[in-house]
Amino acid sequence: MHHSIAELLEIAKDAAFVAGQEVLEIYDKGDFKSFTKEDESPVTSADYHANDIIMKLLKEHTPDIPVMSEETPQLPLEEREKWTRYWLIDPIDGTQEFIARSGDFAVNIALIENNEPVIGVIYWPPGETLYFASKGQGAYKRCRAETKKIAVRELEVPSEDVIMIAISRRQSREKVFSRMSDKRVYQTLPAGSCSLKACFIAEGKADVFMRLGITGEWDTGASQCIINEAGGKILAATFDEISYNQRESVENPDFVVLGDQRVDWEKIICYK
User: Fold this and answer.
1) Minimal CA–CA distance to 71: which of 216, 199, 180, 202?
2) Do residue 26 and residue 122 come from a single domain?
3) β-pairing, 163-168 with 106-113?
4) Which residues of 240-260 are buried (b: 16+ CB within 10 A; e: fewer)?
5) N or C: more exposed end of the chain, with fewer CB within 10 A?
């Protein structure tokens, strides 16, 4: 069964929305159990429930496309590298925020084609907001009944514009500022999950975000498509490209989400 990219985008949007509504109901009731995975990261019964919903819907509509999820065992590279196209999902990005009841969590679904994200869907259930993009077609935000095209904020270059940094609610401002050039003025925008911070940059609410620490390819897949289509980039913190399904490990390097590409970000961000 062959689907166009436009049809696959609709399938991903529907799956993210259905799973997100179920997750929101669980969140509102507080009816979930928390666990700790082998890597000491948190996971909940809601993550597993969302995973089951998305896996079922994707396999029902696209049985020929493999699925990689944070919440399922990963196949060895020798099997995965044969995939020319696959779904990449994070059922709940921001599980820690879900547990802490901050509301900053999202459902992430990406389609990877030839090792590149070509569809990105991020649904933020508490905000009733859907961010989505497909390669070459722009990035969009749907909030309730309104859908609009989004783009990164344009900064005056060169200028003394204040740069807005998206940071975790649990991240030290001083630690973040220590990695930024002292020649600029900065403000911070606290947010939860990695994908929501990327979306805030894609829609121009923030300009840059640095993520240090362990993440998986599912943490950046959907975000990367959306931020690319909005005029930004996601790169390794060393400013190298991020790869998908090309290594045995599916862990990401430390990475940065960058807004306006006219800015010389390598002179601003001090990665050590």
Assistant:
1) 216
2) yes
3) unpaired
4) eebebbeeeebebeebbbbbb
5) C
**Range of 127's domain?**
5-150
SS (H, E, C) the chain: CCCCHHHHHHHHHHHHHHHHHHHHHHHHHCCCCEEECCCCCEEEHHHHHHHHHHHHHHHHHCCCCCEEECCCCCCCHHHHCCCCEEEEEEEEECHHHHHHCCCCCEEEEEEEECCEEEEEEEEECCCCEEEEEECCCCEEEEECCEEEEECCCCCCCCCCCCEEEEEECCCCHHHHHCCECCCCCEEEEEECCHHHHHHHHHCCCCCEEEECCCCEHHHCHHHHHHHHHCCCEEEECCCCCCCCCCCCCCECCCEEEECCCCCCHHHHECCC
| pLDDT tens digits in sequence order for the chain, 272 residues long | 688 999 999 999 999 999 999 999 999 999 899 999 887 788 999 999 999 999 999 999 999 999 999 999 999 999 999 999 999 999 999 999 999 999 999 999 999 999 999 999 999 999 999 999 999 999 999 998 899 999 999 988 766 778 999 988 776 677 777 788 877 788 888 888 899 999 999 999 999 999 988 899 999 999 999 999 999 999 999 999 999 999 999 999 999 999 999 999 998 898 76
Phi, psi of 69 (to 5 degrees): -130, 150
Tally the domains of the chain: 2
pTM for this prediction? 0.95
On whether both 167 and 115 belong to a single domain, the answer is no
Strand pairing partners for 257? Answer: 209, 234
- Of 129, 150, 171, the residue at which a domain comes to its end is 150
Same domain, 139 and 179: no
